[in-house]
Amino acid sequence: MNSKHIETQVLHTGIQPDPTTGAIMTPIFQTSTYVQAGPGDHKGYEYARTQNPTRDALQNNLAALEGASHGLCFSTGMGAVDACIKLLQPGDEVIATNDLYGGTYRIFTKVFEPLGIKFHFVDMSKPEEVRAKINDRTKMVWVETPTNPLLRIIDIEAVASIGHEVNAIVVVDNTFSSPYLQNPLKWGADLIMHSATKYINGHSDVVMGVLITDNDELHQRLAFLQNTCGATPGPQDCFLVLRGIKTLHIRMQRHCENGRAVAEFLAKHPKIGEVHWPGFEQHPNHAVAKKQMRDFGGMISFTLKDDDIDKAVTVLKSTQYFALAESLGGVESLIGHPATMTHASIPREQRMANGLKDSLIRLSVGIEHIDDLLADLSQALDRV
After folding, report:
1. Domains of the chain by residue range
2. Measured between alpha carbons, how far apart are the two ends of the chain, in Å?
3. What CATH fold (topology level) applies to the domain 249-381?
4. Which residue among the candidates 173, 190, 237, 376 is catalytic per the annotation?
5. Is 101 a catalytic residue?
6. Distance from the CA of 368 to the CA of which of 102, 142, 170, 350 falls in 20 to 30 A?
7. Phi/psi zone of residue 285: left (φ > 0), alpha (ψ -120 to 50 degrees), beta?
8. pLDDT surpasses 80 at 33
9. Residue-averaged pLDDT of the chain
10. Is 34 marked active-site?
11. If pLDDT is split at 50, 70 and 90, which confidence band does 281 have?
12. What does the pLDDT look like over 297-337, one tens digit per residue?
């Protein structure tokens, strides 16, 4: 029986009790190699870099959550990004959103640009800017939505349509939404990337990347890269992510509830300037977010009214439940400063041009009691 409901899929799809013991949890197959009955006569597993039963269960489960046929796991999110760009050749061009994770920008500009791949960074919340850069050399379109850290909303359907005019591969980094809130293949994407470190795992104890596609050829090419380049996760990490996925729907519901309450609190606070959260009706492209997302998530960024970086630092150092740390998407709330943390690899002049101010604060709203989170933010803001 194949359920269409994600609440059931997270628990059952692609996962079977262990046939030898009946264990309901997928075993951790902690092995580097597999015994063969004869040369080439094996049970589908030869070497752990190439295949692992724990990883297979996770890959199948993740594919199902995105409504796809194929999933591939990598040792980190950046390992997944690396595999994507290795689909390209020198002379190819990529159009990417100009508000994106700093590590993605770094690998694009510092690793692959010197190898002859050209990157155009545009405001993809305006599809016409994608069209202005599209040409016969465009082989990939790289989308983040909501974007990191300004929570801009990109119309996946509109951008994918433009990219497909020149047969470009349309990739969507779906990390901020998770499969619970958004399924980019439904809107025309060819490939989905997740940092499974974040909401998919949800417990801040694993780093992992994921690529998901319904395209058989893309899957074959990426599986070759996964095996050949070797950025594969171990079975222990795969087991932990499988465990985390089982509560994805419940966690995301609370992230969204708390996110809404925090965003509304900040929007009314006299010391706050801009609040970036796609659930506001006045948020740019709110209608698009409402169309392609089930809810608006627990990621929020904001500035202080006087845009004072010293005061922003005071807030960052004064919270108690919001821990000052890199990353996002865990059950605990985090607070961060993109300009010096997650996006420090992007030159300041480019950050400023894209609207990422030095005083911008980013919140990953966790699943704690909302009264405690609001009180924490209130006392921190009282210090400035």
Report:
1. 6-245, 249-381
2. 57
3. Aspartate Aminotransferase, domain 1 (3.90.1150)
4. 173
5. yes
6. 102
7. left
8. yes
9. 95
10. no
11. very high
12. 999 999 999 888 899 999 999 999 999 999 999 999 999 99
